[in-house]
Specification:
Elements lengths: L2 H8 L4 H4 L3 H24 L23 H9 L9 H7 L5 H5 L3 H5 L16 H6 L9 H11 L11 H4 L11 E2 L6 E3 L13
Antiparallel strand pairs: 1-2
Length: about 200
């Protein structure tokens, strides 16, 4: 190789030198811009934690006829899961009538882990007919059918004046109870064995 050729090759500038280092600068600039955009996006995309707009959120309804039950009575089913398929509950849920329409919201009752606090509204033979009559103003069943149901469900009751709605309709009762309140006063009468009815502590 001649000295002239070597001299010419030695005089060829490096590519990075030719563009004045613009390629390296552009690459670095690109990374800086991307990083800034990422930080800005992260800073503006995450809102502060808030429950606004979710306090009254309802569960989506499904295809099943009892899809609205969880929405209506979810808080009650935590303890009273036995009523999920009970006919009074399911038939009323179809009309969007849940537990709280009859028993009140009863929040103190729901959160009482010792089961001492009664529901806001309770019913016995003395007032259940009045409660049912608030929505069901008429009783249009044939007399023959009424007598037949009476004989099937409560034959021990011989006085028609002692019959009430729940004697013939549904089975909205627990098979056994470990907690009993006086339905008129709300006073705790019986508590489950092993616990003091006054303070909920184990004996």
């Amino acid at each position: 190789m001649s000295l002239a050729r070597i001299s010419r090759q030695s005089q060829k500038p490096d590519a990075r030198a030719r563009d004045g280092g613009r390629s390296t600068l552009a690459s670095a600039s690109g990374w800086c811009v991307a990083a800034c955009l990422g930080i800005c996006t992260w800073a503006t995309a995450v809102p502060p934690l808030s429950l606004d707009g979710y306090r009254n959120e309802k569960l989506m309804e499904g295809p099943h006829e009892s899809a609205g039950l969880k929405e209506l009575n979810g808080g009650c089913y935590v303890c009273h899961g036995n009523y999920r398929t009970e006919s009074l509950v399911t038939s009323h849920a179809k009309e969007e009538v849940g537990c709280i329409q009859c028993h009140g919201e009863s929040l103190a009752h729901q959160v009482d882990e010792f089961h001492r606090t009664p529901p806001e509204k309770m019913y016995g033979p003395y007032n259940v007919d009045k409660m049912c009559g608030e929505c069901h103003e008429q009783h249009d069943a044939p007399a023959r059918k009424v007598v037949q149901r009476w004989q099937q469900r409560c034959p021990a009751k011989t006085n028609p004046k002692e019959i009430n709605c729940t004697d013939c309709h549904f089975k909205h009762r627990l098979p056994s109870r470990t907690v009993v309140w006086d339905k008129k006063t709300g006073k705790l009468v019986i508590h489950e064995k092993g616990q003091d009815a006054n303070n909920g502590k184990s004996e």
